[in-house]
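ugh finaly. both done.
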Amino acid sequence: MPSSAPNQINQIVQLMMLLKPQSLLDIGIGFGKFGFLAREYLEIWDGRNTYGDWQRRIDGIEANPDYVTDLQRQIYDNIYIGDALKVLPTLDHIYDLIIMVDVLEHFTPEDGQKLFSECRRKSRSILISTPKVVTAQDDVFNNEYERHRSQWQMENFVAPVKYRVPHPTKLIVFLPQQRIPELDMAAGTGQQL
């Protein structure tokens, strides 16, 4: 469905606020929740007093064009329509942060690894959230991309630096290109593995 579990919002937004990315790519925007939250907490909460004078680039990729409405167009600078595996290699920008929230389980393990590798090439850091236990799901909303195809574990993410954000039902993994001392020190936010 074009949504994600609400019980992970705090952890994801806290991480975004700590990182303060100047550019963000949201893969699988769905309803646009994380684009909206990034816009609010990275732009409105940054100390400026001018509403709408956006300083950050927030882009999205969405496989299902029916999910994209004027609502999402108000939030994102650019929305690229299509399969992320095909769209991502065509983008010229290197993002400070790519997020995939409740997206990776919709790819086969092989395609998920390809997408993960492409994200590493196109970003300075990646934030992934996927269910710890993936349940069966077919083509919800008549959208083939909604089908669940894989289950992910921490060991599936091979990277020199990775953090696991504690969560009871989600595997939330943050993969920066280099260690982040604030995360190493922040109790409960993340832990170096």
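ok and the 2nd:
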Amino acid sequence: MDGNFLAAVEAEREPRLPGESFTVLERLRAAIEDPAHRDEPRHSRLRSALLNALAVGAWSPGDKLPSETEIAKSVGLSLGTVQKALTRLASEEVLVRRHGHGTFVSGASAQPDQLLHFRFVADDGSALVPVYAEALDRTVVRGGGPWSDFLGASSCIRIRRRINVADEFDCLSEYYIDAEKFGAVLEMPFRELHRVIIRELLAKYFNAPAFSFAQRVYATDFPAHVRSLLKLSKARGHGMVLEINSYTHHRTPISFQNIFIPAGVRRLEIPSPHPR
């Protein structure tokens, strides 16, 4: 869609009152009717227009979209075409369709009190044990690495946190985000990093929810700096590394995370690659 549409919706990122989505729908219609895209199926045009609107903040994670009937009437498409576009976005985990309640923007966490990748299983085999995050440092990293390759960034903000699991053992999280896009994270009070869920911070303040992620797991000897932060001897300094590549709108990379988990600890529940 053209830049005029994106710029117009960008100007509407201030808090909205009920009923103000009408202006956004009018802009959706203009994007759909753009002659430059007349060769594309109408449901594909609507899908692209909705993705662009989400990318610039017309609706935020958890927001309810107008009804299918209202969208169809406002953008000049049939109800079936609108349903086809919304169904596709729901299958891509961008939207959530709840029968009898409507269509909502995905990206909000279903368990805000639980760190998503630290779901260690209790002795009963079903409950989760409590975890507590302690921020260790926050710095700008300019050297290359798998994080910069994935994010396509020349400099990254690295947030390191030690995660205490039920007062039994510690894990280490190294979380990387683009320093240019998310530079404001450097200004937030450091103490906030002890308790904030970073993916929710990115969704709330930067309109960059994590819609999906790719996960890789491997066993290895931990580097010396990891052993030191986890207070492990060299003999015990090995375990599992969980590498997480997260994506936001248009499957754009948003964060890179390494989680170091010592050997011989509790079972870990691996989350779905489509966070809620």
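summary for the 2nd one i guess: Residues 139 and 163 are 18 Å apart (CA to CA).
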